[in-house]
Amino acid sequence: MNELTHFDAEGASRMVDVAAKPVTQRVATASGSVQMQPQTLAMIRGGTSAKGDVLEVARLAAIMAAKQTSGLIPLCHQVPLDAVEVSFAFPDDLHVAITATARATARTGVEMEALVAVSVAGLTIYDMCKAVDRAMVVERVQLEAKSGGRSGNFRREP
Amino acid sequence: MNELTHFDAEGASRMVDVAAKPVTQRVATASGSVQMQPQTLAMIRGGTSAKGDVLEVARLAAIMAAKQTSGLIPLCHQVPLDAVEVSFAFPDDLHVAITATARATARTGVEMEALVAVSVAGLTIYDMCKAVDRAMVVERVQLEAKSGGRSGNFRREP
Amino acid sequence: MNELTHFDAEGASRMVDVAAKPVTQRVATASGSVQMQPQTLAMIRGGTSAKGDVLEVARLAAIMAAKQTSGLIPLCHQVPLDAVEVSFAFPDDLHVAITATARATARTGVEMEALVAVSVAGLTIYDMCKAVDRAMVVERVQLEAKSGGRSGNFRREP
Amino acid sequence: MNELTHFDAEGASRMVDVAAKPVTQRVATASGSVQMQPQTLAMIRGGTSAKGDVLEVARLAAIMAAKQTSGLIPLCHQVPLDAVEVSFAFPDDLHVAITATARATARTGVEMEALVAVSVAGLTIYDMCKAVDRAMVVERVQLEAKSGGRSGNFRREP
Amino acid sequence: MNELTHFDAEGASRMVDVAAKPVTQRVATASGSVQMQPQTLAMIRGGTSAKGDVLEVARLAAIMAAKQTSGLIPLCHQVPLDAVEVSFAFPDDLHVAITATARATARTGVEMEALVAVSVAGLTIYDMCKAVDRAMVVERVQLEAKSGGRSGNFRREP
Amino acid sequence: MNELTHFDAEGASRMVDVAAKPVTQRVATASGSVQMQPQTLAMIRGGTSAKGDVLEVARLAAIMAAKQTSGLIPLCHQVPLDAVEVSFAFPDDLHVAITATARATARTGVEMEALVAVSVAGLTIYDMCKAVDRAMVVERVQLEAKSGGRSGNFRREP
């Protein structure tokens, strides 16, 4: 019980066998945020196609990274995704909030795909703005909810 | 002033021209942590080759991800790295602290490589342990220091 | 109507959700050509294993590129392909004509896989011959036909 | 003379040895266009961040693809790029014109990187708009100019 | 009969069409070994988390490489794997024996995935130890068994 | 002494720092072979462009794989290659012998690139011919020679 399933009885890492699991609809949502100076946030919020849209670059980076998840996380299965959506919000004048949802029809969940999308969105915002604010922080990358699969649903408590 | 250099005057994204910059020694260090249940941390700390070593998997994932940085962050240059090192510490019974240092002899910095390494180390710890603790959080991924290059050195203030 | 489905109502890019679409047999055929000097075409046509076979290199590049489509086209789904075939013809003494067909059993079409295969075949021919003919042109890369899927069949009109 | 340098004397393909070539500043510019229905072009031109910006997606895809060139074109060298820029123009009401410039400080040229960028920009425009105009054509992908390197400069004649 | 199915009637390479094949459980096991000096083997066997565990690095490299098989072997299909396991043994004081098993629910077999895993495990052992034993040899990489699929089962004869 | 340089004093894996090493010309040659049935070898030797050329496919796969080495071998540096050449010979009626040479102007050697090329050439031959000879064996993948770099030259003794 409480075992780390990515290791076998001898502690050898492995890609867990999912062949016996049913193919079901999987959804996972992750969140995170980037903390920055108010002036940096103002620059990002001012983004229009005429001035350059930081968040659209971050969104595309996030979607493309979600598709690379199994090449980044060593023991992740390759899961062809049905959908990836990434959205941004401005909860205050210091943060860009990031939410990503991944979906698949698969034998295994897509939590890592959603978390990779949020992380890469945050890192891309950092990259785009680091010339003006090198101290930005990617904060609280976490799973919000997931459904589908034998381990049941999960919803983060507020 | 305060311009986002990844956009041109019309707001079009671009990979910034670094041809005129000198080749210098570049070093960047990033940090972050993973918050988890005390029992999860105890399982990780108990890691030995006999039981499975979560942190060694995370370390390798981080090093391999650093090499993929230009494929993840859209406007990053391809920088062949001279070195990548990743270390872990246990500041309390709820967190694994992650530090990554990247080095290159290049025309551009390696901040993103260090930040990608920390992020992927954190996400891999999440993946390895999510069966026992789905609420873990990757926290405060940030640049600690960088040197080399025209924009000068940076050291995060405590 | 006439909407660009890769954007949501606010204009944010997204990977369209295909979870509700049925898995069906998908086939797409694309074409294109490379225009060149007659002497260049003669060199290619003379290709034998003893002299070096430009078209076989281009064919393999095309097949391998088709498998990388979701890493190249930002909002493409990852579609494991059932088959890829690439063929060449010589309609006149100035052109190599390229045709590629991709097949999959999937929730979404494989037009982009066929178009990527044709494009990379053309670019590889360019690369192999550019030392002798730098002015070659990759021409008219286009979808010829596709079948399978809710949007119905397509066949280019002559 | 007029040899295809990517083959050896027996016709075996090879990555040509560039060790003896000097490291110089390399620049290459390629162009191409996408032909479409006037209504499709109108939709693209209307692109703003509120409605979704097809060309910004295509631009990022092009930049990221340029970095993948050596993974697409079998005998291309791996060239870390100093810069990539991609621009679009509307010469008439049926075409989006694409121009891409790649730069590197290297032993070999970056023509293929510029051509890959143009091709993937064109294919991404196709992908984004194919739901409304499946007959679009990626046209005349070609080298416009290159400089640097022993083979001398090239500029396409009008 | 005795045909090489990866070529068509004209000798053109192709990714064989598997659309008509049934989806079945596929398993393949491959083996190989690395021959080395007895002192090198002693160093590897002494591997603990305190000294560095060569075989755990090799195991992870093997699992990650199995997922990249279709990007390495030109005409391989993209097969999302259900499981990959890699194990090591010490049959004598000169060899590390490697065994890898890959599983998938697919229209085509996973022999290549198992063989890639074994090869990359062997090459990674070489890389980790080459500073002390440059003459190591990766030996006898071969299929041990496969099941699932129309071509029937295979078990290597002793 | 006899240390495994890919681990630090605590046994943590790392990408060794090569920043202080001089940039020099690096060359490495590796070899290996594929053992098969005489009829399989006869089919391969009969390869012409009309019947399908197994060895040309294997050669291209090898060259492309050499460029992916740092994505396969966890602690390998990213080394842009100056040249890759792959050749085949038939020492008897049971074996295809494979030789690969990689070159770079770099701070670190290219042994792994040459070994990856040989391995992937062998595995591709296996893949192309496995429908007729599933028992083929990739044999004796080993370094033949290397030069350049502080650790001196190496030449395998006969």
Biggest interface reads: A-B, 63 and 63 residues
Helix content of chain A: 25-40%
Indicate the CATH topology of chain A: Alpha-Beta Plaits
Unreliable sequence segments of chain A: none
At CATH's second level, what is the architecture of chain A? 2-Layer Sandwich
Q: Reading side by side through the largest sheet of chain A, how are the strands ordered?
A: 2-3-1-4-5
Q: Number of helical runs of chain A? A: 4
* SS-derived structural category of chain A: alpha+beta
Average pLDDT value of chain A?
Answer: 93
- Principal-axes geometry of chain A comes out as elongated
Rg of chain A (CA only): 17 Å
Keywords:
Alpha-Beta Plaits; 158 residues; 4 helices; alpha+beta; five-stranded antiparallel β-sheet; homohexamer
What does this protein look like?
The structure is a homohexamer of 158-residue chains. The first copy, chain A, is built from four helices and five strands; from the N terminus they run βαααββαββ. Chain A is α+β, with helices and mostly antiparallel strands and 158 residues long. Chain A has a single domain, classed as 2-Layer Sandwich (Alpha-Beta Plaits), CATH 3.30.70. Chain A has a five-stranded antiparallel beta sheet, covered by helices on one side. The longest helix of chain A has 19 residues, at 111-129. The first copy, chain A, is elongated and about 50 Å long. Chains in contact: A-B, A-C, A-D, A-E, B-D, B-E, B-F, C-D, C-E, C-F, D-F, E-F. Chains A and B meet through helix 2, helix 4 and strand 4 of A and helix 2, helix 4 and strand 4 of B.
